[in-house]
Structure formats: structure tokens, C-alpha cells
Design goal:
alpha+beta
């Protein structure tokens, strides 16, 4: 398949601002990252499905990180828990795990644990999901296609969205450079889009793939 990467820039791309949660102590983030993974504090059963929540948020017309934070904290899950309650539960889980580690607990406090989780749940979700969303919208407009985002089952198969009947995989542009091997997309099976949110741009790597869904 001939490859002619297509660069898209469009008004659909909005600048993504991030909120500073706090100044994290030197070298604390790698430890907090490992502890978060091992404690499973950010499992969907605890904090909710970020993709499902963010899709609902976008459907309300929300865009900014402040709007996302307000929406997430107020939104109730199927168990009736709002975002404040989910964050408390995740923080309790992470802080309990940190307390079992041989660390300086004057540094790795509950407050630091909560702020780290807020950075993940609010900042990083907004950054990642917004880039994916606006890239799909820009591509749909360019190609004149209807679009929808994938279900959880479709996502597990490596499909992030659809342009008409065409499956799409969307990743940050630097994911391959960072050696995230699982992010190497199969251009024979999906339309591959990468994005640079801060530059309001995305790249369609194999636009010819769409021809079979014309």
C-alpha cells in the first residue's frame, strides 16, 4: 500500500491547558507512578472508565480542563458515587500502599497522593482524550465521514474510533518514539492517526486505507 502521510490542521483543534496541581518533590513522580500501578488505585472499578466518562463530557459541549474537572467531580457512576467519592477511594488505596513502602512518609503524604491522582485523572485524561477526540473530528470533516468512538470491546481490539465503516487507531505522535511497542499500529487493518495536541495538528499515516470503505 502506497503511503502518503496527510497532515491536518483545523479549527477543531483547541489548545489544551493544564493545571498545576503542586510542585512534586524531586524524584517523587516515578515512585508515585509505580505505587499507583501496583496499588491499582486507578482501576475503572474505582475511578470509572475515563474513555466513557470523557465521551459523555464532550457530548455536553465541554472543552476546557476546568470544565472537565467540574464535570468529573459532579458526575455519578452506576453505583451512585460522584467524582469526589471516587477520588477519595483512589487516594485511600494509593496512600495505604505508599505507607507499606520504605519511604519518607513526611514526603509521601496523603495530600501528595491525592494531587498525583488528580494530575492523572484530570490533567492527563484531558490532554490525551482531547487530542484523540479532535483528531478524529478533524479527519471526519476532511474526509466527509460520520464518526463515532469505539466501545470498550472495540478498544480492546485496537480500534479507537470509526470514520463511517472504517476502523481508526489514534495515538500521540511521540508514542512510538518513547518505545511504547503496543502503540505500533497495523496500517493494514486500521486508519492510523497520530496527533500533537499542543501544536493543534494530526497526521493520517495511511489515507489510502480509506478507499476500501468509500
Amino acid at each position: 500500500m502506497e503511503n502518503s502521510m496527510l497532515k491536518l490542521t483545523a479549527k477543531h483543534f483547541n489548545s489544551i491547558t493544564k493545571k498545576d496541581r503542586c510542585e512534586f518533590p524531586l524524584n517523587s513522580k516515578p515512585i508515585l507512578n509505580i505505587a499507583t500501578q501496583n496499588s491499582q488505585a486507578t482501576r475503572p472499578a474505582i475511578v470509572g472508565s475515563m474513555k466513557d466518562f470523557f465521551t459523555e463530557f464532550l457530548a455536553t459541549g465541554g472543552k476546557t480542563v476546568d470544565q472537565w474537572e467540574t464535570w468529573y467531580k459532579a458526575h455519578k457512576d452506576k453505583n451512585g458515587n460522584d467524582g469526589h467519592q471516587r477520588i477519595v477511594a483512589a487516594t485511600d488505596k494509593l496512600h495505604a500502599y505508599l505507607n507499606k513502602m520504605p519511604l519518607d512518609h513526611a514526603v509521601f503524604t496523603r495530600d501528595i497522593a491525592e494531587k498525583y491522582l488528580l494530575d492523572l485523572i484530570i490533567n492527563k485524561t484531558h490532554y490525551g482524550m482531547s487530542g484523540e477526540y479532535h483528531s478524529v473530528v478533524a479527519a471526519a470533516k476532511y474526509f466527509g465521514k460520520e464518526y463515532r468512538f469505539s466501545t470498550a470491546e472495540e478498544e480492546s481490539q485496537g480500534i479507537d474510533a470509526w470514520l463511517g465503516d472504517c476502523p481508526v487507531q489514534v495515538k500521540p505522535a511521540d508514542s512510538v518514539k518513547k518505545h511504547h511497542v503496543r502503540n505500533h499500529a497495523d496500517e493494514e487493518k486500521t486508519l492510523v492517526i497520530t496527533y500533537k495536541s499542543k501544536e493543534d495538528v494530526c497526521f493520517v499515516h495511511n489515507p489510502e486505507f480509506l478507499k476500501q470503505y468509500a
